[in-house]
């Protein structure tokens, strides 16, 4: 599957759920309070961000999605701040102010990038009656492609079934971030996205992947869901639908804060579906977005440019056989994106298991693998008039077909010194019993701060041996 970022500007998503305001107080701390064994924070700055369903809406808006947000607030300062912050990001706020309700607010005190305490301001056990939401929700339903319900168990979606029924009547896909130990209220949704602990609280503990698959499919059928997505932290995420199950390994490299990662996942899925992506591709894109957002501190969103950059690191725009000049351009571009370039060279006359293993091991040393291939004339000079068996173009075509190889380039001298010095790879790799200090191009690589490595070949596996075996009419050893 080769992903592309779709045109999100055509997507329209309606979000409904628990609205919250996240406050942050920042400041240094250098002493302990004489009143109690707690640090004293000198507050120097503060900020407010939309949380809960508001953070989901921000994730959608950051992608350029046309987003409307339905939920309840109090008639208080926090509600005004929440609406202002969201409108600044072009979110259409369809708030329902209630005189007997307090806008949910979470205050976090942070010092040196460490959260010291969180204070929650909310009305516990407040249940919003369906009649409060139904009219406003229904007024905006027809104008949107996908419906996203963000349940934080704060009462807004305590009685969610009437909203799901409205969506089904209008043929709208409704995806839900669920909460609680009873998922029966979400029956009939298109997609649920619980994390692993939320799933196990409903379906029971899963001691193996097989048990997870069995319980997930049972729950999906019981709730009449089109699909169920279980997010599994460092184990990635697993999608279960009528076709079976599909696993997406985590894309995270650095983890600073998982706050709001679930909002990013469901937001990107909704945006993808609304933009016409198949569910599988929308989930794969959300997995990449999650890897980006957890590398940020606090609730955060992902931009289209960040997604495109991440996708570029997985799938390059141009791969395969390239000219020397084009290779230099591609390598320079790879470095601008923080990628490590590996380079090797050889004849690769008859490709065999030893070659493939060696190249796969070389790719593991970095992000991009360049293979330089001798031309036919240089091989004749090195190995005799009967070689090569395959022409240069055929050898390059076979090498370019390997998944581990990014770029293949030809060279026409007896050694690739000049080419290697021009490309300047981060790591130069050769196989066999080569002396690292005598490998052609090695000195240039070291002078540029790179390294030279020698890797072992697979035993009893060589082009010369294969040719000998063929001539003798023997069966090659496995």
Q: Fraction of residues in helices?
A: 25-40%
Write out the CATH superfamily name of the largest domain: Ribokinase
Count of discrete structural domains: 2
Classify the secondary structure makeup into a structural class: alpha/beta
The total count of strands amounts to 21
Poorly predicted tracts of residues: 254-258
Strand order of the largest sheet: 7-6-1-10-11-12-13-14-15
In terms of DSSP E residues, the strand content is 15-25%
Span between termini = 32 Å
Would you give an account of this structure?
By secondary structure, the chain is α/β, with parallel strands linked by helices. The chain folds into 2 domains: 8-314, 3-Layer(aba) Sandwich (UDP-N-acetylmuramoyl-L-alanine:D-glutamate ligase); 320-472, HUPs (Rossmann fold, 3-Layer(aba) Sandwich). Helices cover 35% and strands 25% of the residues. It contains 16 helices and 21 strands. Helix 3 packs parallel to helix 4 (161-169) and helix 8 (279-293) packs across helix 9 (304-314).
Write the layout of secondary structure elements.
Blueprint: E1 12-17, E2 19-26, E3 29-32, E4 39-41, E5 45-52, H1 53-62, E6 66-74, H2 77-87, E7 92-98, E8 104-111, E9 114-121, H3 130-141, E10 146-150, H4 161-169, E11 173-177, E12 191-192, H5 196-203, H6 209-222, E13 227-231, E14 237-241, E15 244-248, H7 261-274, H8 279-293, H9 304-314, E16 320-321, H10 324-336, E17 341-346, H11 353-363, E18 368-374, H12 376-383, H13 392-400, E19 407-411, H14 417-423, E20 427-431, H15 442-447, E21 451-455, H16 463-472
Parallel strand pairs: 1-6, 1-10, 2-8, 6-7, 10-11, 11-12, 12-13, 16-19, 17-18, 17-20, 18-19, 20-21
Antiparallel strand pairs: 2-5, 3-4, 8-9, 13-14, 14-15
Helix pairs in contact: 1-7, 3-4, 7-8, 8-9
């Amino acid at each position: 599957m080769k992903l592309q970022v779709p045109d999100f500007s055509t997507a329209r998503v309606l979000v409904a759920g628990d609205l919250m305001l996240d406050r942050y107080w920042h400041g240094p701390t250098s002493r302990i309070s004489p009143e109690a064994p707690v640090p004293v924070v000198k507050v120097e700055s503060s900020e407010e961000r939309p949380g809960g369903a508001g953070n989901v809406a921000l994730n959608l808006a950051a992608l350029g999605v046309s987003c409307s947000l339905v939920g309840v607030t109090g008639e208080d300062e926090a509600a005004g701040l929440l609406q202002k912050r969201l409108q600044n990001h072009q979110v259409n706020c369809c708030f329902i102010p209630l005189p007997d309700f307090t806008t949910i607010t979470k205050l976090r005190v942070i010092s040196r990038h460490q959260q010291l305490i969180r204070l929650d301001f909310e009305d516990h056990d407040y249940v919003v009656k369906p009649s409060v939401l139904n009219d406003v929700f229904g007024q905006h339903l027809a104008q949107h492609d996908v419906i996203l319900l963000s349940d934080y168990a704060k009462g807004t979606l305590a009685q969610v079934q009437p909203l799901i029924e409205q969506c089904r009547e209008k043929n709208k896909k409704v995806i839900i971030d669920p909460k609680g130990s009873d998922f029966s209220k979400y029956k009939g949704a298109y997609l649920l996205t619980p994390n692993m602990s939320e799933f196990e609280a409903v379906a029971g503990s899963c001691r193996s992947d097989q048990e997870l698959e069995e319980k997930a499919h049972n729950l999906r059928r019981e709730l009449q869901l089109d699909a169920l997505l279980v997010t599994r932290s460092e184990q990635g995420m697993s999608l279960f639908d009528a076709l079976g199950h599909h696993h997406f390994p985590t894309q995270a490299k650095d983890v600073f804060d998982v706050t709001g990662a679930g909002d990013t996942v469901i937001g990107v899925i909704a945006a993808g579906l609304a933009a016409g992506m198949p569910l599988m591709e929308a989930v794969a894109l959300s997995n990449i977005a999650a890897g980006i957002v957890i590398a940020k501190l606090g609730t955060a969103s992902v931009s289209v440019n960040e997604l495109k950059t991440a996708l570029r690191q997985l799938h390059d725009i141009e791969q395969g056989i390239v000219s020397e000049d084009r290779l230099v351009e591609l390598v320079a571009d790879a470095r601008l994106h923080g990628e490590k370039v590996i380079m090797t060279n050889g004849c690769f006359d008859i490709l065999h298991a030893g070659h493939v293993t060696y190249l796969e091991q070389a790719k593991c040393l970095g992000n991009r693998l360049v293979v330089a291939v001798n031309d036919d004339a240089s091989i004749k000079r090195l190995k005799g008039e009967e070689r090569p068996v395959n022409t240069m173009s055929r050898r390059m075509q076979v090498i370019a077909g390997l998944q581990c190889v990014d770029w293949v380039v030809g060279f026409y001298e007896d050694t690739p010194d000049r080419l290697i010095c021009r490309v300047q790879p981060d790591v130069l790799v050769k196989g066999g019993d080569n002396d690292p200090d005598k490998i052609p191009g090695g000195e240039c690589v070291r002078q540029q701060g790179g390294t030279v490595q020698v890797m072992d070949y697979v035993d009893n596996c060589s082009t010369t041996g294969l040719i000998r075996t063929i001539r003798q009419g023997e069966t090659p050893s496995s």
